Amino acid sequence: MIKGIEIQMRLAVMAAVMLSSPASTALADTWTVCPDGCDFAGIQEAVQSACPGDRVEVEAGEYEEAVVIDRCLSLIAVNGSATLILPGQGSAVTITSPQVTVQNFSAQGCGDMARDAAIKVLSSQFLIQGCQIQGNYVGIYVMGGADGTIQENQVLESGGSGIVLEEASMVRVIRNTIMGCGAAGIELEAATSCAVEANNLSENLRAGVMLHESAESALINNSVDGSRIGLGLVGGTNNLAGGNQVAECELGISLENETAGNLEGNRLYDNEYGINLDRCDNGTASGNYMDRSEEYGIYLNDCHQIAVEGNMVNRSGDDGIGLLNSTDCTLTSNDIVWSRYDGIRFYNAPHHIVRNNVLRGNGGYGINIDPGSQGVLLEGNQFENNSRGEVLLESAEPK
């Protein structure tokens, strides 16, 4: 819990910095773009004529051009949707300058390569807000950017991922709706200290949110459904997933090769596995609620020094909590009820502490410990109405 709180404190500081990041508009000019009767007929022409800090307002219409923003300014669609159409080539908007705002644009048909996007960011202190992005290879792509915010956009049906942060830091992705993407709704690659918060992610094929080799980042209060993996964290360090709701995924929350990952207060419904940890070390799963997992509520494979504390595991289709080839974990104050088989099951998983758990109404044993699981300490656990008995104890050290 302490690590989770530390991360959230850092994110609060980050949000305050981001709110102050747009360039000052004092003494700035406003330029207008429309097909007829404005300062300019094309967006790129207006950008090239603007001075740093200026505002470019684009009237509703369709604009077939690629825009490069190489100076700090605000590019705002007004009086309806300004749509950038760039079928099968490059990125519609590329941002190379710091302190750029892009608001209320639509973009479609952009990109045929992995790093093409409707909006591509190669700079820092940016704001992307209120855009409608559909049918592009990637919706919004940030490479190496920092101190930016991507908020309240709608990204639909990207061929790849909806939003990608690669080698980015201190970027906040908040309150976006991302649906029907061919890869992940939101993807972080080697990102640091980023926040993915309060997004709605539905029917994205590979994952709702996927982190690869990222650190000190937080996934908070997101809603995910209908993906293979709801929230996936791979090869990272000290990341937090807290307060998320994940439903109808193969793996609700999946951690692989993560160190010091923290899962706190998530709600997981109707997933094949609620929480799946594979080859993880020194992490925490606390205060999570799992209901109607088709297989395990919580499953640990080849994990070490994981604290599983205060979780509610309800109506699992296999065992409530399963440990395979794992060592030196603590299972404390969990409620495991109405699993199809055992409440807690150890498979070749020695040296654990199992303390003050409630095991009720499970279809097998409350706790089942196989011969390969030596040195399991049982203390203060409560058992009620488990069909085959309290404990199948072949190699434990009860106390």
What attributes characterize this protein structure?
399 residues, 2 helices, 6% helix, Pectate Lyase C-like, 15-stranded parallel sheet, 30-stranded parallel sheet, mainly beta
Structure description:
There is one protein chain. This protein is mainly β. Strand 1 (30-33), helix 2 and strand 2 form a beta-alpha-beta unit. The longest helix is centred in the first third of the chain and has 18 residues, at 2-19.
Q: What is the mean pLDDT?
A: 92
> What is Rg?
24 Å
Number of domains: 1
Assigned CATH superfamily: Single-stranded right-handed beta-helix, Pectin lyase-like
Gap from first CA to last CA: 28 Å
Topology at a glance:
Layout: H1 2-19, E1 30-33, H2 43-49, E2 55-63, E3 67-69, E4 74-85, E5 93-95, E6 100-103, E7 105-108, E8 119-121, E9 126-129, E10 132-134, E11 140-143, E12 146-151, E13 154-156, E14 163-166, E15 169-174, E16 177-179, E17 184-189, E18 195-197, E19 200-202, E20 207-212, E21 218-220, E22 223-225, E23 229-234, E24 240-242, E25 245-247, E26 251-256, E27 262-264, E28 267-269, E29 273-278, E30 284-286, E31 289-291, E32 298-301, E33 307-309, E34 312-314, E35 321-324, E36 330-332, E37 335-337, E38 344-347, E39 352-355, E40 358-360, E41 365-369, E42 376-379, E43 382-384, E44 389-393, E45 396-398
Parallel strand pairs: 1-2, 2-4, 3-5, 4-6, 4-7, 5-8, 6-9, 7-10, 8-11, 9-12, 10-13, 11-14, 12-15, 13-16, 14-17, 15-18, 16-19, 17-20, 18-21, 19-22, 20-23, 21-24, 22-25, 23-26, 24-27, 25-28, 26-29, 27-30, 28-31, 29-32, 30-33, 31-34, 32-35, 33-36, 34-37, 35-38, 36-39, 37-40, 38-41, 39-42, ...
